[in-house]
């Protein structure tokens, strides 16, 4: 496993969330797929990312609101999940990966809050005139710190997740069908709740039904 590449993709995913360039690679579906490609397991990464994407649709990272950060957590969860498939099979391993990913989102979200506080001190250190003169340099410093934060959260989460899931997987007695049912029920409930964010089902039913049809078609083709 190449930890340098995992750290780099984690840093860029962390940056993309708010700092730069916001190309949406921090979305769980994209972050999971990219991490899966890096590990030679693109389908597993895409599957885990798609499930975490459903859980995070209702999260709106607006302004100074506190929220779980899904992108970096997905990178860490994908690494842990792909490592767990060696000792746990099918949906049971996937359920473990999803649970860890949702839990690590809270840790990643706390790192965002910490980064904001440190960045505030960097930008407003000294008097106002000095801050204005060195605004660009301080802004770039805050972005570099965000990159380091993403690297730390992803690599740290990948290590913790791999160790934790490696211990739990052999003890995991959940039947694959039960695990698949739990994922389906939880995902369906979360998806139904997130519809209200986009104006409700009545306003968005065409796009919702079209997306469901396209997704089902892709599953049938795969």
Topology:
Layout: H1 3-18, H2 28-38, H3 42-56, H4 70-84, H5 90-123, H6 128-133, H7 135-168, H8 176-194, H9 201-221
Account of the 3D structure:
The chain contains nine helices and no strands. It has 222 residues and is mainly alpha-helical.
Termini distance? 27 Å
Q: What is the percentage of strand-forming residues?
A: under 5%
Structural class: mainly alpha
Q: Considering DSSP H and I runs of 4 or more, what fraction of the residues is helical? A: over 70%
Short key terms for the protein model shown above:
about 220 residues
Short summary of the structure?
With 222 residues, the protein is mainly alpha-helical. The protein has helices spanning 3-18, 28-38, 42-56, 70-84, 90-123, 128-133, 135-168, 176-194, 201-221.
């Amino acid at each position: 496993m190449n930890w340098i590449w995992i750290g780099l993709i984690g840093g860029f995913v962390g940056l993309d969330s708010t700092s730069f360039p916001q190309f949406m690679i921090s979305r769980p579906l994209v972050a999971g797929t990219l991490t899966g490609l890096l590990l030679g397991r693109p389908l597993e990464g895409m599957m885990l990312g798609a499930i975490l994407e459903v859980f995070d649709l209702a999260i709106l990272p607006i302004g100074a609101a506190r929220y779980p950060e899904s992108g970096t957590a997905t990178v860490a969860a994908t690494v842990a999940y792909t490592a767990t498939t060696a000792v746990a099979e099918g949906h049971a391993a996937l359920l473990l990966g999803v649970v860890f990913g949702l839990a690590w989102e809270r840790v990643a979200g706390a790192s965002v809050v910490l980064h904001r506080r440190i960045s505030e001190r960097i930008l407003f250190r000294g008097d106002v005139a000095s801050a204005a003169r060195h605004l660009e340099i301080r802004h770039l410093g805050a972005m570099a710190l965000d990159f380091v934060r993403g690297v730390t959260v992803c690599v740290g989460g990948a290590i913790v997740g791999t160790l934790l899931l490696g211990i739990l997987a052999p003890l995991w007695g959940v039947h694959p069908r039960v695990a698949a049912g739990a994922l389906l029920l939880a995902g369906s409930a979360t998806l139904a709740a997130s519809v209200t964010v986009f104006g409700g089902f009545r306003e968005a039913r065409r796009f919702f039904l079209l997306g469901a049809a396209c997704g089902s078609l892709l599953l049938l083709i795969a």
